[in-house]
């Protein structure tokens, strides 16, 4: 049980970005602007049904039915779910058994990429807490389930309840760090992660520390710490190792070192076959290389397991590049459907990137910003506002997105385009060039737009490129 909980809190998603010897292709990214306070945003109507807003099971009987639903698969997690479910179906069972079942559901959700399975873990937590309200494992499970539903305030509260009784619970510290990061409270996230490292140095704590350093723009240190995380991995826990390898590979991707990134994603797949995030990572590399057919094949494999909005969007881009317009349209429709169901931030960014549904993109992004304050939510809001022509507001959100100094080409391009539109031509052009120097193929749509924007600036300025 202890090994499983360590594995699980290593695998919480820390950011909405992709991103292992690595050189940086842009050693001098322009300095981030000073952070600015978020302006008051108009109340956003609820446009979509979110899993975390759906009614909780109306009774413990309903929660029990959800928790004991049969898994589909033959993995170790499936076998454990089946064994625990049989025991609980025969006898009431205590909080410890329900918590164990919930952690098994989270393990399966992580490996499969199916976000709906976290609702089953949440149901297990509800039953366990009803039986033993202060049970630490039950509260830890609840915190994880809430975190994956992006209910960051409630996840933080669950973690703090545990930590008020046991300040050394590293699973709760991991939940606390991730919740604070999701809420945009970066220093609080760092403090919780540092406590984790101090108490239990290992894959979960090192991986968190590496990610936080990467967000601050210190890629070299982030990669060194991530190496410690990978070295601390347990071969008996392949999904946690695959996750760490995928995060490490993403750091190289963000630097435009596609060869090193591809090797890292390949290692992740060797640790955990058909791991959706690693398949998507290799597909990004294939897209950057112009290998459209290879990208389509990888993304179709990833999408079969994990039909999330971002993977469907990438699949649409790959099919469009390969000339399959009908297939691309189907994938984009799938991205919109998945986004409406459970990922309004990705849906808002998709609309803004493609220049679609501009008012809805702003409403979606503003609603998400009301619930979370991380830099990727700020960037999504900035880009949606930019597409809607609300440039001053876009600039403020973009400044907040750059406040940590994160070396992400997408953030830099968005910031540069917004500044150019506002007439800050020199600074804007410098940011766009920095984006392309850092990762010239960071996104099929964005990279092409960035190149076109610089070409127009060069033509109008009468300069040779």
Automatic annotation (TrEMBL):
Residues 1-26 form the signal peptide. It comes from the Bacteria. SMART domains: TPR (SM00028). Keywords: Signal. This is Secreted protein. The lineage of its organism: Bacteria, Pseudomonadati, Myxococcota, Polyangia, Polyangiales.
């Amino acid at each position: 049980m202890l090994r499983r909980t360590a594995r699980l809190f290593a695998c919480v998603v820390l950011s909405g970005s992709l991103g292992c010897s690595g050189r940086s292709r842009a050693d001098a990214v322009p300095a981030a602007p000073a952070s600015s306070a978020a302006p008051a945003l108009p109340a956003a109507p609820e446009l979509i049904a979110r899993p975390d807003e759906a009614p909780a099971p109306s009774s413990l009987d309903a929660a029990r039915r959800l928790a004991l639903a049969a898994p589909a698969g033959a993995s170790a997690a499936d076998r454990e779910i089946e064994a625990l479910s049989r025991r609980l179906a025969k006898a009431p069972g205590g909080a410890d058994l329900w918590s164990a079942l919930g952690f098994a559901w989270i393990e399966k959700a992580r490996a499969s990429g199916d976000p709906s399975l976290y609702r089953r873990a949440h149901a297990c937590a509800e039953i366990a807490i009803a039986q033993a309200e202060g049970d630490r494992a039950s509260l830890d499970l609840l915190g994880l389930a809430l975190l994956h539903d992006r209910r960051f305030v409630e996840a933080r509260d669950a973690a703090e309840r545990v930590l008020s009784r046991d300040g050394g619970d590293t699973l709760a510290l991991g939940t606390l760090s991730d919740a604070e990061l999701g809420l945009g409270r970066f220093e609080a996230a760092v403090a919780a992660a540092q406590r984790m490292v101090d108490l239990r140095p290992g894959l979960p704590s090192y991986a968190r520390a590496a990610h936080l350093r990467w967000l601050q723009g210190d890629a070299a240190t982030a990669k060194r710490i991530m190496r410690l995380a990978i070295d601390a991995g347990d071969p008996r826990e392949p999904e946690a190792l695959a996750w760490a390898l995928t995060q490490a590979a993403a750091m190289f991707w963000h630097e435009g070192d596609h060869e090193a990134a591809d090797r890292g994603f390949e290692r992740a797949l060797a640790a955990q076959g058909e791991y959706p995030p690693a398949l998507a990572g290799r597909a990004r590399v294939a897209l950057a290389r112009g290998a459209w057919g290879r990208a389509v094949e990888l993304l179709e494999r990833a999408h079969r397991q994990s039909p999330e909005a971002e993977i469907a969007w990438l699949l649409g881009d790959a099919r469009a590049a390969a000339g399959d317009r009908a297939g691309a349209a189907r994938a984009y429709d799938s991205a919109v459907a998945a986004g409406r169901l459970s990922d309004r931030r990705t849906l808002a960014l998709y609309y803004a990137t493609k220049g679609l549904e501009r008012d809805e993109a702003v409403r979606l992004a503003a609603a998400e910003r009301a619930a979370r304050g991380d830099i990727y939510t700020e960037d999504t809001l900035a880009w949606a506002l930019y597409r809607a022509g609300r440039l001053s507001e876009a600039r403020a959100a973009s400044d907040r997105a750059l406040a940590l100094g994160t070396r992400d080409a997408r953030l830099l391009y968005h910031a540069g385009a917004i500044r150019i539109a506002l007439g800050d031509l020199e600074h804007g052009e410098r940011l766009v060039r920095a984006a392309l120097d850092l990762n010239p193929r960071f996104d099929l749509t964005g990279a092409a737009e960035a190149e076109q924007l610089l070409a127009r600036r060069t033509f109008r300025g009468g300069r040779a490129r």
